[in-house]
Amino acid sequence: MSKLGKFFKGGGSSKSRAAPSPQEALARLRETEEMLGKKQEYLENRIQRELSLARKHGTQNKRAALQALKRKKRFEKQLTQIDGTLSTIEFQREALENSHTNTEVLKNMGYAAKAMKSVHDNMDLNKIDDLMQEITEQQDVAQEISEAFSQRVGFGDDFDEDELMAELEELEQEELNKKMTSIRLPNVPSSSLPAQPDRTPGRMQGLSSTVQRSRAASSRRAEEEEDDIKHLAAWAT
């Protein structure tokens, strides 16, 4: 059995001790890292010192120079061992930190699961279904009420459209008749016809011109009256 095994076996009483907490183990590992770091610094200084001594003695004092180089080699070997130990401790510390983190995460997730279970224990799926159905029914009622309010309210609007259109046409016809009666028609002459004109050529020519002008004026008035009647008829339709 190796000396290392005997060392751990000799401490068999530690089995009865309580396991340290992750925080305590991490603190111990950090202290060990700090101690080994200081040891590294010390060995590096010693190596530089022995190297300086070897250079100082050189060929003048070979024995002293060789002793300094031997000590330097021993310090370098110790420094290499410490580097390996620090790497192992650093890996162990990181693994312990990850394990502690995972433990805390698992613990918190367990608490959350218990809380969710406690909340769900107070819930009844049947009651939830009934509640959602009631909410849906109330929403439908609210929608119907909104639609009822938005509809046009008409009191006494149930009239016959045909009767209303007939009454409107009568009113338009009355208005057209009033406008027709307000139009002035030419008066019928009440005086006796003029005496038969002189049939002499000069007199006949003058009379013919006068008659033509009178007929043209009467024709224009008749056309104007016909246009007015057409406009009124178009407005009435």
Structure description:
By secondary structure, this protein is mostly helical. The protein has one domain (22-234): Orthogonal Bundle (Helix Hairpins). The chain is 79% helix and 0% strand. It contains six helices and no strands.
Relevant terms:
237 residues, mainly alpha, elongated
Structure, briefly:
With 237 residues, the protein is an all-alpha fold.
How is this fold's topology laid out?
Elements: H1 3-10, H2 22-57, H3 62-121, H4 125-150, H5 161-181, H6 201-236
Helix pairs in contact: 2-3, 5-6
Q: Level of helix content?
A: over 70%
What is the CATH fold-level name? Helix Hairpins
Note the gap between the termini: 129 Å
CATH class: Mainly Alpha
Protein name: Charged multivesicular body protein 4C
Region (Disordered): 1-24, 175-237
GO molecular function: protein homodimerization activity
Keywords: Coiled coil, Cytoplasm, Endosome, Membrane, Protein transport, Transport
